[in-house]
Amino acid sequence: MGRAEIKSTGILLLFLFMTACASNKPADNLARELDSLLSAEFRGDEPGGCVLIKKGEKTVFLRSYGLADLETKEKITENTLFNLGSISKTFVSNGILILQENGLLSVEDSLSKYFNDFKNREIADRVRIKHLLSHTSGLPDNRKVDDNFEFFLTAKDEENFAPLKQADSLNFNPGEKFEYSNPAFNGLALIIEKVTGQPWQKFIKDSIFIPSGMVESKITDGPYPQEGVAHGYELNNGKYVESDYGEYPTFAAAGNGGVWSSVTELARYEKAIRQNVFLGKELTDKSRSVFRPENWQDTINPFIGYSWYIGEEQMLGEENKYGVNFIYHKGDQGGFRAFYVVIPEKDIIYIGLFNRPPKDLDMIIKEGIYLLERNKWLE
Fold it and tell me: How much is the pTM?
């Protein structure tokens, strides 16, 4: 090889090296800055969490912090199972839609088709499955959790939905307003059981977990699971105390918050959703589009689909700041906190699972999105 060829080859190699470095810079910058934020929040000898950002098949950020179990000192990893809190509702919602796709029910069905024991039959006739899915049913959450603390420590879906069936009246006409309801999803879980003739947990496992490759994820059925998962903690008088099943009420009410999963398996769940592995495109798109009842009368615009939140305003407190669409859900139960954010048009998923409340969960969400934008991942 002559000098000219050597020089030319050297220039080419330098160019390729500089291009590779430049292409990695946004990911490196984001990882460094987000890791700095999270490392300052979570100490290695305390409860912590795991955060994942993926763009397509590329892992942009993946870090674990702290301990899954303060007693055994087991460290949190990307495979640690956390309670998802209300992100569990998306699984129940997808279960309902799978049954609709198979012609076994319709979101237009009234509750009276599945429950014949409402105190006020007219209420059961007026409220439809779609109202439960979108938190627009008007059913009052008349559970007396504080007055019956010991009962609700072990109360399952049936016991949590039963008080709603005793309502004399609705808070508003179905479809008029948004009012978040945990027991609505206990009712949806019961509908899955009535239609399939099996525990709804098994139906979700067979219909969603297995097709999605979520081989380790679990769903609470009473006290289960007690092993192989992170424990939840809350700070009390300067000391972390356990706050999950047995300490915090409604943990056994699985329909509203009973799924346990990892950031790794949730990424598989999202991939399965987008690839229509367990649910067709039509109903998937409908579930992730804003539900707009004709009789809407709330002071705010509709912002929720079938369990999924849509848009920036509820998540970031601003509208159209980044010029992209956000689909998301957050979770909060006992000592667990979680978020699951999707930016479909950019093929990005951003997940955080924690086994103790961060000082400011919304700030972590906002900072991650800001760093994605600043490092040009949202272009």
Answer: 0.92
